[in-house]
């Protein structure tokens, strides 16, 4: 075999191996990185009758640099004197409602009843994510059997846009 033929054969084998490697090696998608955690602290208190802490949502929220995701690690306290259990939801970009699923519970700290409810997860939006508003609602009875509820909200802006 001449040198030229050997070079062509080696070149052909190299091309075949490179093609096979490109086909067989899975392509991993680029992973977006999360920015710094933003502190969440929303306390809902009664505004009629005795002063009661109805609900408290604490934890963190972070946005990814790809502008489509946010992750959360939130804790919901059911305040002493509040009834029924408080709730919260996230409003994405002012239009998409997200109800995070409870992922667990732990011992209730002072001022909370039953348990401290845990919500940990990630949400992916179909378009550019500009902000998330968290709404927390708690209720109480005053005077007598008259039911009252109160909602507080805080908006968290995506630092990447």
In the CATH scheme, the class would be Mainly Beta
What share of residues is helical? 10-25%
Number of domains: 1
Shape: elongated
Report the end-to-end length measured between terminal Cα atoms: 63 Å
What would you call the structural class? mainly beta
Strand element count: 9
Total helices: the number is 1
CATH domain fold name: Immunoglobulin-like
Structure description:
It is a single chain. 14% of the residues lie in helices and 48% in strands. The chain has one helix spanning 3-24; strands at 38-45, 53-63, 69-79, 87-92, 96-98, 104-106, 112-124, 131-141, 147-157. It has a 5-stranded antiparallel sheet, with no helix packed on it. Strands 5-4-8-9 form a 4-stranded antiparallel sheet, with no helix packed on it. Strand 4 and strand 5 (96-98) form a beta hairpin. The N and C termini lie far apart (63 Å). Residues 1-32 form the signal peptide.
Describe, in short, the structure shown:
Keywords: Signal. With 161 residues, the protein is mainly β.
List keywords for this structure.
161 residues; mainly beta; Immunoglobulin-like; elongated
Write the layout of secondary structure elements.
Layout: H1 3-24, E1 38-45, E2 53-63, E3 69-79, E4 87-92, E5 96-98, E6 104-106, E7 112-124, E8 131-141, E9 147-157
Antiparallel strand pairs: 1-2, 2-3, 3-7, 4-5, 4-8, 6-7, 8-9
Keywords: Signal
Signal peptide: 1-32
């Amino acid at each position: 075999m001449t040198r030229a033929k050997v070079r062509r054969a080696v070149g052909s084998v190299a091309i075949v191996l490179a093609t096979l490697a490109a086909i067989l090696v899975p392509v991993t998608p680029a992973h977006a990185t999360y920015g710094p955690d933003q502190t969440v602290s929303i306390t809902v208190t009664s505004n009629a009758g005795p002063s009661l802490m109805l609900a408290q949502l604490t934890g963190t929220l972070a946005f990814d640099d790809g502008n489509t995701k946010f992750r959360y690690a939130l804790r919901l306290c059911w305040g002493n004197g509040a009834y029924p259990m408080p709730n919260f939801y996230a409003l994405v970009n002012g239009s998409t409602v997200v109800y995070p699923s409870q992922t667990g519970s732990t011992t209730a700290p002072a001022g909370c009843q039953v348990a401290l409810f845990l919500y940990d997860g990630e949400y992916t939006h179909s378009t550019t994510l500009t902000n998330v508003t968290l709404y927390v609602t708690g209720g109480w009875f005053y005077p007598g059997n008259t039911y009252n509820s109160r909602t507080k909200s805080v908006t968290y802006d995506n630092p990447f846009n």
